[in-house]
Amino acid sequence: MRDSRETFVNHAFVTGYPIKHSRSPLIHGYWLKQFGIAGSYRAYEVTPEAFPDFMHQLRDGSVGFCGGNVTIPHKEMAFELSDRPDELSAELGAANTLWLEDGKICATNTDGRGFVANLDERASGWDRISTAVILGAGGASRAVIQAVRDRGVKTIHVVNRTAARAQELADRFGRAVEAHPITALSEVMAGAGLFVNTTSLGMDGEPAPSIDFSPLASGAVVTDIVYVPLKTPLLRQAEEQGFRIVDGLGMLLHQAVPGFEKWFGRRPVVDETLRQIIIEDMDAHA
Ligand code: ATR
Fold first, then answer.
1. pLDDT tens digits, one per residue of 130-164
2. Where are the domains of the chain?
3. What are the residues whose beta carbons fall under 8 Å from the beta carbon of 77, sequence distance 6 or more?
4. Is the pTM of this model over 0.90?
5. What CATH code is assigned to 112-248?
6. Residues 6+ apart with CB under 8 A from 3
7. Which residues contact 2 (CB under 8 A, 6 or more apart)?
8. Nearest atom (ligand 1) to Cα of 209
9. CB of 196 sitting under 6 A from ligand 1
10. In this predicted model, what pLDDT tens digit does every residue of 229-244 receive, in sequence order?
11. 71 lines ligand 1 (CB under 6 A)
12. CATH (residue range 4-110+256-284)
């Protein structure tokens, strides 16, 4: 007879609405194969109206998953409806990774860890800085601000088209974070060692403004959390102006690591083959 837990212990999901473009199944599928784990990870579309029911079914085991990822637009609801959110997700008010423990839904947010792991891998030493500039104040910006602050960066300038949204984040994340209108961008870039674009500017061939990166410290790192295209217009400009650039794909890959370890019990590594698999998929759907 099969242990009833056996039927769902190794099955994980990614849910969002819509979800069909998610690359997470490719990432986790690669690692499952690499480790030879007889589990699964699949996209599971849930509408916002149905999400509370989905959480009940996850908790009582009837949906058959041991945990999974949550993406737009469910991240806030996943946090609110989880039983044991950790401190990271509580400060963000949003969760992207869920797992079951003793019949309770535990929640965390791994976006910030993915962001810094990507920089650690591709721009080692990036954190020997005192000032960072973050463009944008949406959902994605929060995890980046939290992670950069937690790494010890003393001053984080958040610059946003809608200044009030930047101010909300400054209030949320404490003294290290200062809010500015977009008109102050050049001024706050002076001497900064890290510039992060968290807006959708330049995504999928959309136009992006020209930015003069020259006020940044020499050797500063410029990164974009947008990864389609891989080299966004902002990254291209920064590279042409002589700055180190880091694309956003690694953030997607690295944010997946803690979830895989929770659900499947092995800590995976982000390697070049995985990166190439995702790049090929992006090219195939360009
Ligand atoms: P996400 O969760 O992906 O961060 P979001 O919450 O919609 O998405 O936030 C998008 C961010 O991109 C915001 O900072 C937004 O600025 P506003 O707060 O002023 O809306 C920024 N953004 C989007 N389009 C922009 C544009 N054309 N110019 C400047 N900023 C833009």
1. 999 999 999 999 999 999 999 999 999 999 999 99
2. 4-110+256-284, 112-248
3. 48, 51, 52, 55
4. yes
5. 3.40.50.720
6. none
7. none
8. 28
9. no
10. 999 999 999 999 999 9
11. no
12. 3.40.50.10860
